[in-house]
Amino acid sequence: MQNLSCYSKIADSKDGVFKYIIDNLRHSNRTFDYFIDWSKVFHKVNNIEMELNLLNYLIGKEDIKIEFKKLIKKHPSVVNVIPILVAIRKKSVEVLVDYRGDDWKYKKYSFRKKSSYTEKEIEDIIEFCDGIGLLELLKNKQIKNIVDYMIGLEVGIGTNGRKNRSGFLMEQITKWYIEKECNKLGLEYLEQASQKKMMKKWNIETPVDKSSRRYDFAIKKGNKVVLIETNFYTTGGSKLKSVAGEYISLNNFLKPKNNVEAFIWITDGKGWKTAKRPLRETFAKIDYLFTTKLIADGALEEVLK
Questions:
Q1: In the listed set 128, 160, 192, which residue is the last one of a domain according to the structure?
Q2: Does the reported pTM lie above 0.85?
Q3: Residues of the chain with pLDDT > 70: what percent?
Q4: Which residues does the UniProt record annotate as the domain Restriction endonuclease type II DpnII-like (predicted)?
Q5: Could you say which DSSP state residue 41 is in?
């Protein structure tokens, strides 16, 4: 831990500063962007909209299996989108079709894009769609429009990405602070800064502990860089102990490097209330561990000056 003048306004000891960190952890970073990424939803739907509209032909058809066979023969591209109608991204699916015997029987259904399909392949495709109940829904008009249905399905799938979205939002929040300070101090910064990116932009060779390393942010200060990693944890768990340890290792790796001015770990979230001990250890062992509250108090500006 490096002493900063802004710390003296908070408390008169390291323990006091750490208590301030814990007491001021944000309980959430959920902006409106947390709930759904509409651009991603419509990007995925627009890519297959033509095929989805072709499948709309089947809605309300009495002899739906016969009509489906005709549709596949005339427009084989519709086959490729069938798995996603039940939220499957893979193009082949294995199904347990019979478990009433000594040996369970499995069947693999393929939906790979082809210019045409054999009679057997078409029968299997129709069998799958019938087995999952899709044909019944279309025949009885329980799905009115497959494009609209797909939008709803992608929204549902999108909710699974909320865990990762929290990390993205923390990066966006941190970016706002960094941009503000860099504009004030006349500094340049990079997002998702790889070694190659920093070399190309600034001609500064930056160390990486692994070839895939991309620092969330890099700020050019003179002929050196300030490297920043950021994350947010709403919930606790054993993972946080290893997370804290990783940043001690990264700090120790970067500290002796000539081209690195400083390494800053910016983290936040009430999840750290369940892992105070490893966070306290990291706070003591690395130069700069900040929360968004400390940044608002001037900690980042002080390091960048």
A1: 160
A2: no
A3: 100
A4: 18-301
A5: H
